C-alpha cells in the first residue's frame, strides 16, 4: 500500500497527460458526460489537482468497497461532518470515489465501457493539470494453468490472436494502437508480494477478448460451434505463449493509457483455471 501514501503538495501549471485533440481548444467547455462533470461547471483543478493514482475496477459496489478499504490502509480521515460520496452518482453510469490522492472508479464490463471512461478520465486529468498520474486496472480473470486465487500482474496485453495492439474502426478505417504497460511498475508491484502471502503473485501475458463466452473459448454460453478438443488446443496454445489469464478490459486500458503517456498496470486475480473448466461459481 506504500504506492498510495505519496501526495502532491503543490499543483503544477501544466499536466503531463497527453490529450491528442486540438479541437478541445475550440470548445467553450468540455462536458465529461459519463462522469457528470464539466470543465466549466466544476473547478476540476481544485477537485482533482492532487490526484496521483487512479484505480479502476468493474462494478460500482466493488470500487466503493475498495475506497473504504483504502481509507483504512492509508489511515485517511474524511473531514468532520462529511462522508465518502460517489462523485459521479448523477451520471448513473460509472461510480467514482476520491480518497486523498487516489481516485477509485468503476469501469463497467468490456473494452467499450472502459474505453469511454478512459477518454473522460484522461481529459479530467488534463483539465485538472495532474502531473504523472499512475493508473491501475484491478479486477478478476480466468487463469491459464493457474488456480483460482492467483494474483497476476500483466506484462503485456494482447488480443485473442496474441497481437499486442488495440484495433479501432475510426471513420471506416482500422487504426491500431499499441497496448504497452510499464515494465518498471510491474516489478515494483511484484516486489510488494510477501513469501507468506496466502496466494501466489506472478507476472505474465493477459489475453483480452470482446466476449465472455465464445471469445474466451467457453462452452457454456447460448452458442458454441467448436469442440472440447478445439477449445483445449487454443487454451494450451495461450499457455505455451506465456499467457497467464484472460479478461475483457486490459487491451483498451493499456492502449489508451499508453497513447496518453500515462504509466499504467493491470493486476487481476484468477477465479478459476480455464484449463479445468468454464463456469465461475458465485458461492
The coarse overall form would be: globular
Q: Catalogue the unreliable spans.
A: 1-9
Q: Structural class per helix/strand content?
A: alpha/beta
Largest sheet: 5 strands, mixed, barrel
- Element order: H for helix, E for strand: EEHEHEEHEEEEHEHEHE
Report the count of strand segments. Answer: 12
CATH topology grouping of the largest domain? Rossmann fold
Total number of helical segments? 6
* Strand percent estimate: 25-35%
Total of domains: 2
Distance between the termini: 29 Å
Radius of gyration: 19 Å
Question: What number is the mean pLDDT?
Answer: 94
CATH superfamily of the largest domain: Nucleoside phosphorylase domain
| Strand line-up across the major sheet | 6-11-10-7-12
In which range does the helix fraction lie? 10-25%
What is the second-level CATH architecture of the largest domain? 3-Layer(aba) Sandwich
CATH class category label of the largest domain: Alpha Beta
Amino acid at each position: 500500500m506504500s504506492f498510495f501514501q505519496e501526495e502532491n503538495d503543490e499543483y503544477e501549471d501544466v499536466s503531463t497527460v497527453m490529450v491528442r485533440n486540438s479541437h478541445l481548444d475550440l470548445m467553450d467547455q468540455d462536458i465529461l458526460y459519463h462522469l457528470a462533470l464539466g470543465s466549466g461547471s466544476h473547478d476540476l483543478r481544485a477537485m482533482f489537482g492532487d490526484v496521483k493514482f487512479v484505480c479502476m475496477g468493474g462494478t460500482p459496489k466493488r470500487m466503493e468497497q475498495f475506497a473504504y478499504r483504502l481509507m483504512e490502509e492509508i489511515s485517511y480521515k474524511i473531514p468532520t461532518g462529511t462522508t465518502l460520496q460517489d462523485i459521479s452518482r448523477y451520471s448513473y453510469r460509472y461510480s467514482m470515489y476520491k480518497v486523498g490522492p487516489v481516485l477509485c472508479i468503476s469501469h463497467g464490463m468490456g473494452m467499450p465501457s472502459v474505453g469511454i471512461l478512459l477518454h473522460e478520465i484522461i481529459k479530467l486529468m488534463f483539465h485538472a493539470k495532474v502531473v504523472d498520474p499512475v493508473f491501475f486496472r484491478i479486477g478478476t480473470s480466468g487463469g491459464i494453468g493457474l488456480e483460482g486465487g492467483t494474483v497476476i500482474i500483466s506484462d503485456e496485453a494482447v488480443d485473442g490472436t496474441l497481437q499486442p495492439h488495440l484495433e479501432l474502426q475510426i471513420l471506416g478505417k482500422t487504426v491500431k494502437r499499441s497496448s504497452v504497460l510499464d515494465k518498471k511498475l510491474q516489478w515494483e508491484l511484484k516486489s510488494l508480494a510477501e513469501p507468506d502471502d496466502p496466494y501466489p503473485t506472478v507476472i505474465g501475458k493477459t489475453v483480452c477478448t470482446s466476449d465472455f463466452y465464445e471469445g474466451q473459448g467457453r462452452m457454456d454460453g447460448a452458442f458454441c460451434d467448436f469442440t472440447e478438443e478445439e477449445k483445449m488446443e487454443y487454451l494450451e496454445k495461450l499457455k505455451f505463449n506465456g499467457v497467464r489469464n484472460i479478461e475483457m478490459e486490459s487491451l483498451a486500458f493499456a492502449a489508451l493509457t499508453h497513447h496518453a503517456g500515462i504509466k499504467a498496470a493491470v493486476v487481476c486475480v484468477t477465479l478459476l483455471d480455464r484449463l479445468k473448466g468454464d463456469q465461475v461459481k458465485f458461492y
